[in-house]
Design a protein that fits this description.
The complex is a heterodimer of chains A (303) and B (258). By secondary structure, chain A is α/β, with parallel strands linked by helices. In chain A, 35% of the residues lie in helices and 30% in strands. Chain A contains eleven helices and 14 strands. Chain A has a six-stranded mixed β-sheet, with helices on both faces. A four-stranded antiparallel β-sheet of chain A has the order 2-1-4-5. Chain A has a four-stranded antiparallel β-sheet with strand order 12-13-11-14, with helices on one face. In chain A, β9 and β10 form a beta hairpin. In chain A, α3 packs parallel to α5. The model of chain B has no long low-confidence stretch (mean pLDDT 93). The two termini of chain B are 32 Å apart. Chain B has one domain. Chain B is elongated. Chain B is mostly helical and 258 residues long. Classes of the chains: A alpha/beta (303), B mainly alpha (258).
Chain lengths: 303, 258
């Protein structure tokens, strides 16, 4: 099987800042792959180098076997990039813009059927002749995705595709992207919505501070870190959470609190500590590990 | 599909987009400069017609017109590439081009040709208006055409440099106000440089706009301050220098690819 993307010791420095500290990563053809990490981890820098928007300080990247610098034309023909920001050209409508975009890739009128298909697939028919300026944020996001698909790229990269998109549209987008994956397109996405990566992606790389800190099949990662979530709803009133259990705490949101549990004994400990402080437990739930736990473990950053 | 066809479609699409861009706002990009030039023509010819005599057998109003046409052509060629680039950079939509297999040469050609087309189109509109007003000879149409092309190309290229270099609108305005405007007003649009004191004649001779306007005017009247072939060589030299700088910038990805 062909390799869709091969990152080879990719480094990027901005002055003294090492944004990427040597990324080695291979993504196989047909994969649904997620690149996770907090803001500033280096995901977007990595995508920009892949797309040719930035140059690596050292190292190389190949897309479908084509080097993104030496053979940039073929590499870019193989890539469809959906940028993170909602950028658009205010002079044109959706269909014009899609035709232009296809034209830059050397596609002429023979490509119009495919453009219609993309417009339909993304539910943009009603807006095809609307100026980009007049579209809502969600519609602009769809138009951006359409734009990345006009030249039928085998590899599609979505940089935070669901940032600021409502739940309904998010579902639709994922259905569409899943369909593309089933048709054989390799999908790479960056996100910090961990649950999305968990349900969609077969493999996950986690980045932190310019390095890949974990790379595995999603289910293996989840297995490897058998931590559980303990979610509690508390009657806090004006009482404070005892300091002894604060370090296990992951999230505090009004009266519901989640803890990251590695051993079941910790559950007993938390409950007894709460009892000591006379905090009433209103509800309790123990859920299985998710990628967020894995991530917190790996990066050691607890909120 | 042959490689040539792909490259051709790519360049043509980018050119078409650039042309359509200024056509969508034709009031701002064509009508406005035409009105401005016509106003210059009406006012200056009215005020100066009986005071300035440049060439013996050419009346001042007629003398003025080629200069005004060329000045507007140059300014609009500059405005087209520079404002398109600064807008796409500020809006962020320049990535749509940067993500594609468009080469730096294709990029250059598309922006260059669009600039020439807009410049010549504005110039042609002013010419049509002027014909209503005054009889204008056209002794050497090919000279006129040649200077229009090379002038539009020079300023279109300069506009690409400005558009790539600037990253804010006020920097672009500075380019317009501190470079383009002085160069175009001190180029002999409104007078022959022979009427200037020797020092200012020398200064004018350093201004490439002067040669473009002088050569362009030769095409109409067969008279000029400098031999047209010399003007053409000087302008071509400037174009080659600026085009090399631009291609170097585009090839290296200067300010476009970090």
């Amino acid at each position: 099987m062909k390799k869709a993307i091969v990152f080879n010791k990719v480094k990027k420095n901005f002055g003294k800042l090492e944004a990427l500290k040597g990324i080695d990563l291979t993504i196989e053809e047909g994969e649904f792959f997620a690149l996770l990490g907090p803001n500033g981890a280096g995901k977007s820098t990595l995508i920009n180098i892949l797309a040719g928007l930035a140059k690596p300080s050292s190292g190389s990247i190949k897309v479908m076997g084509y080097d993104v610098i030496q053979d940039y034309q073929n590499a870019r023909r193989s890539l469809g990039i959906v940028p993170q920001e909602l950028v658009f050209d205010p002079f044109f409508n959706v269909r014009e813009m899609l035709r232009f975009q296809a034209g830059y890739f050397g596609k002429g009128r023979e490509n119009d059927d495919w453009i219609d298909e993309v417009i339909e697939g993304l539910d943009l028919q009603d807006k095809a002749n609307t100026n980009m300026r007049m579209l809502s944020g969600g519609m602009k996001r769809r138009a951006l995705i359409a734009q990345a698909l006009v030249h039928k790229p085998p590899v599609i990269v979505l940089d935070e595709p669901t940032a600021g998109v409502d739940v309904e549209l998010r579902k639709k987008l994922w259905q569409f992207i899943k369909k593309l994956n089933q048709k054989g397109h390799t999908i790479v996405l960056t996100t910090h919505y961990l649950e999305e990566a968990e349900t969609l992606c077969s493999r996950v790389a986690m980045m932190d501070q310019g390095k890949i800190v974990a790379l595995d099949k999603t289910k293996n990662l989840l297995k490897r870190f058998s931590a559980k979530n303990l979610n509690l709803r508390l009657d806090l009133k004006d009482k404070k959470i005892p300091t002894s259990i604060q370090k296990l705490m992951k999230n505090l949101d009004h009266h519901s609190i989640s803890f990251l549990i590695e051993e079941i004994a910790e559950v007993e400990f938390i409950i007894s500590e709460l009892k000591k402080s006379k905090i009433k437990i209103l509800d309790m739930e123990l859920t299985n590990s998710d990628l967020e736990n894995v991530f917190l473990k790996l990066t050691g950053s607890k909120k | 599909m042959t490689n040539f066809k792909t490259e051709f479609i790519g360049t043509w699409t980018l050119l078409k987009k650039e042309l359509l861009r200024f056509w969508r706002v034709v009031f701002q990009t064509v009508a406005a400069p035409v009105i401005t030039a016509v106003l210059y023509l009406l006012i200056f010819s009215h005020v100066l017609a009986n005071h300035v005599k440049v060439y013996d057998n050419v009346e001042y109003t007629a003398f003025l017109i080629p200069g005004l046409i060329m000045m507007s052509l140059l300014q609009n060629a500059f405005a087209n590439s520079s404002s398109s680039l600064i807008q796409s950079k500020v809006m962020g939509n320049i990535v749509f081009i940067l993500l594609t297999p468009i080469t730096y040469l294709q990029f250059f050609l598309a922006f260059l040709i669009a600039s020439i087309v807009r410049g010549i189109f504005v110039g042609a509109c002013i010419y049509s208006f002027a014909l209503l007003y005054v009889d204008l000879p056209m002794l050497h149409p090919w000279v006129i055409f040649g200077f229009a092309i090379i002038g539009g190309a020079l300023l279109g290229t300069f506009g690409i440099i400005a558009g790539i270099w600037a990253h804010r609108f006020d920097q672009m305005a500075a380019f317009q106000n501190f470079v383009i405007m002085p160069l175009s007003f001190l180029s002999g649009v409104f007078y022959s440089i022979h009427s200037l004191p020797p020092f200012w004649q020398k200064v004018s001779q350093l201004n490439p706009f002067f040669y473009m306007i002088d050569g362009f005017r030769y095409g109409f009247f067969g008279q000029s301050d400098v031999a047209p072939l010399l003007s053409l060589s000087i302008v071509t030299f400037f174009f080659i220098v600026l085009a090399s700088i631009t291609l170097g910038m585009l090839k290296s990805g200067y300010k476009l690819r970090s």
